[in-house]
Amino acid sequence: MVGCVDKQTSGPGEEEVVIPEISKSDKLLPGNKISVLTTAMEFQMPDTIPSGWNTFIYKNASPEVHFMIFEKMPEGITIKEYKEELIPPFEEGMAYALEGNIEKSQQAFKNIPKWWFNVTVGGGTGFISPGKTALTTFKLEPGRYIVECYVRMANGKPHAMMGMLKEVIVSDAVSKISEPKNPDSEIAVSSEDGFEIIKPLNSGNNILKVNFKDQKVYENLLGHDLNLIKMEDGAAVQDLSDWLDATDPKALTTPSPEGFMFLGGVNDLPSGAVGYFEVTLQPGNYVLISEVPGAYEKGLMKKFTVK
Question: How far apart are the C-alpha atoms of 176 and 52, rounded to whole Å?
Fold first, then answer.
């Protein structure tokens, strides 16, 4: 859970793709629409949702950056076991890591229950800034899930330990909608080739398809995802990359780096899966980035400009 990586010595994502302005009418991702609201440190959302394709409309009405990820629990594991068996050793390990006591941190993490390593991720939104709404569509299998946000408070405490932890049942009843068709843009993501822009993003309203060609566990014990972020002039993309590197126990903490507006994306999905998200792009500079250590070196960071 802890570690460090060398600073990038060259400017990350310096290649620039200039995108022409294209007018589009507003549209909404199709499907069973599930509203999710955060006003402080909570997920206000249904306790039970259908399996299959669903569009999550996640409004971040809080003053913090958040996201949501679905974690599918092994048979017999509920939020009770999650809170009683997983959180205490994780919280202890993080506390030691923040103190710089790596030996005690690693000892604490050894008490993480074995069932945790059978948890599978099922998708979610990318990071979303205060006052913004993320629209993400992905397919869920039936089962018991924990939805969480692990962005950290200034003291290093994850939001999940402050209330952003919710049990959701994905039922056998299947959503009546099918996979979205005719996306405006498409990007493939893999551990081998990084981000591959198959069909570029345009100015205006976009529905972006994200194709997970493969998936792997990186040094931060997470897989790759895709986040779309708007950059202000002069914003240091290295600060963003460092903030997203969870191998550093001080990463992902409030406040998020200055000069970046998080617009959502698609969180970790299994190999071969696809997800979609809707976003409106105004003229400006943007970056696509995955929440992995050394994203630039892995090809999982790309800057582009909308004219």
Answer: 8
